[in-house]
Amino acid sequence: MERFQDDDAGYERWLAAHPDLFVLNTARRPAPNYLMLHRATCRTIAGTPARGTRWTGEYIKFCGQRTELEKFSQARVGGTAFPCRLCL
Questions:
Q1: Domain range for 14
Q2: Taxonomically, which superkingdom (predicted)?
């Protein structure tokens, strides 16, 4: 699992290299009330940011295997990763 915070270039490289994996989008301080799970190819977390100019500024990304991200959400943050309605 990789974490991207204030590193849009690294995040975009990771997305390009791992289109078959997943992204957990969360606040800078991960909280149980916002843990959104996406496919790496989801249009809401790739391409041009819809809000603002950065992907890894206000929100950070944890990237990897789906089961790894779901376990992280429960064990480390105390919440459940909510699947994106557009891609999952």
A1: 2-83
A2: Bacteria
